[in-house]
Every structure is written in structure tokens, then in C-alpha cells.
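ok so for the tutorial part 2 we go from a plain amino acid sequence to predicted C-alpha cells. step 1 is just haveing the sequence, like this:
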Amino acid sequence: MAVQQLDEQIAQHSQICNHLKEEVGRLLVGQDHMVSRLLIGLLTGGHILLEGVPGLAKTLAVRSLATAIDTGFSRIQFTPDMLPSDVIGTEIFNPRDATYHVRKGPIFSNLILADEINRAPAKVQAALLEAMQERQGTIGLETFPLEEPFLVLATQNPIEQEGTYPLPEAQVDRFMMKVVVGYPSRDEERKIVDRMASGQPIAQIRKVAKPADILSARATVDKVWIDEKVRDYLVDVARATRTPLEFGVTGLDGMIEVGASPRASIALMKAAKAHAFLQGRGYVTPHDVKSVALEILRHRVILTYEAEAEGKTNDDIIQRILDNVPVP
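step 2 — the prediction. this is what the C-alpha cells look like for a chain of 328 residues:
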């Protein structure tokens, strides 16, 4: 009976996710992979870093998803001259009664679009880190909790270096997934051109979900069953980034400087559950783990200079691990 109830809950809540995907698709052409990863972030409460060259609809995708959910949304355009108070908020002095009152910043919302996050200086990144990890913001001597759902969806441009500050490893690790956004296919790009050349008004996104729907879906994702062998497998995948030979992965000697932390194992489990949920299943398979492993691990594995000199990328190393770690 419990299994039947779970299947019914998954069918009900996954339908909400399908509605969200369809609604975003009314405005966004292609980029299905990016949208599905944004949904995984919503279902797990995990922050997502979107990386891609300008013009690939990263900001449009996040804005459309936020509009489709009847919840708070803030867009923060990061610049090198920003201060932490521009993100968190500040205390304002009232000369009439000689008191201070708190004015909260844009971080006190539900869905946060952090545009070009790598332009933020270190102090701003530190303020954002507290909000991402502790789900709270400190203004003066007061600490305020952030309302759920709370999700930071950040974008960064990988090709521009002037006026940027590379994110420190501690902050990068707080992002559950790093999604690399690629170019659309020829057919998709033709649809984009046709849509913009038609002169018709751009479709308006409708609100098709509420915050309570997202929180209920999260509770259902937590119930998705994951077998002991699958748990062992995802732990082995994460540990293989630290000691590849221990898991039969050869050819990576001297290529990995720092492997993934246990936070990666937790993220793998949560993301695999959400991936199974989106497929309409109440159980996790090794394929679910493999499907999300690149996004979970690529920003947590640091390569050595030798690996970079040989032209190896993080994705190359992780894919080799996925191909060689025994699957249950």
C-alpha cells in the first residue's frame, strides 16, 4: 500500500513539474537539459551554477521558471563595485526618532538569479555564502532566516576574464550542480530566428505552481527509495575522484589534485532521487546516478597542472571514472 501511495504522489507532483517545463517551453526554445537541471535544483533545494557564453538564454530560463511559480523572485546583477549591503541589506538611520531600522536586500526572496556572479568581489561572495549555506542573512547584529523555497541560480561567463573574481573553492562547493550550457541545435536556432522575426508578441509565462506545491514535491522526492547497492555505487563514484586506483580506474595517476568531498556524495544521492522522480519512478537506478554525476562533480574536482597540460578536462576525468567504476 505504501508503494502504491508513493506512486500516486509521484504521479501527482511530477505532473506539476511537467507543467512548469511546458510553460517555460512556451518562451524558451530548446535547452531542455538546462531546464530539467533547474527543476532538480528546485526539488532538492540545491543551488545551481549555470556556465555558458552570452546569449544562450540562461537568464531567460531562470526568469521564466521563477515567473511560472507564484513566489518571490530577485535578480542581482553583480558588478566589481558592489558592497555586501547591496545583497544582504543594511540598517537605515531615522533622524526623526534617532533609531535604526533594517532594510532587507534582494537576497530575502525565494528564487535568486545571481547574474554574472564571478564579477562579485570577495566580501560580497562571503555574504552570499552565508545565505546559501546557512539559509540566513545577518544585518548589523540581527540574523534573519530566509523563507523556503530558497534557491540561488547563478550564471557566469567562462570566456571573460577582465573585471572578474574567480569563485573560491569553498563557495563553488556550495553549488549542488554546475550546468554547462551549450549552443542550440540548427533546428532550434532556426526556430529562435523565426520566432523573433515574426513580429508577434513574446508569450507571457503563466503561474502554474505555488511554493506549497514545490515543498510538497520535495517531501515526495525524499521518499524515493534508493537501494543499498546504489548508495554504495554513488559513494564509490565520489571516492574514485580521490583514489582512482582503489576502484580499478587506471590512467589517472597524477591528474587529480583534489577530489570531491562527502558533500558530493550527498548531492549525488539527492539529485539521483530527483532525477528518478522526474522520470516518474519511486526508486533510484545507477543510470540516475550517472545522469547527474557530471553536473555534481565537475566543479568539485581540481586537476593538476600535468592534466591541464595534456588537454584533459574535468568532464574527461569524471567520464573515465563513470566508465570504469563497477555498476551494481
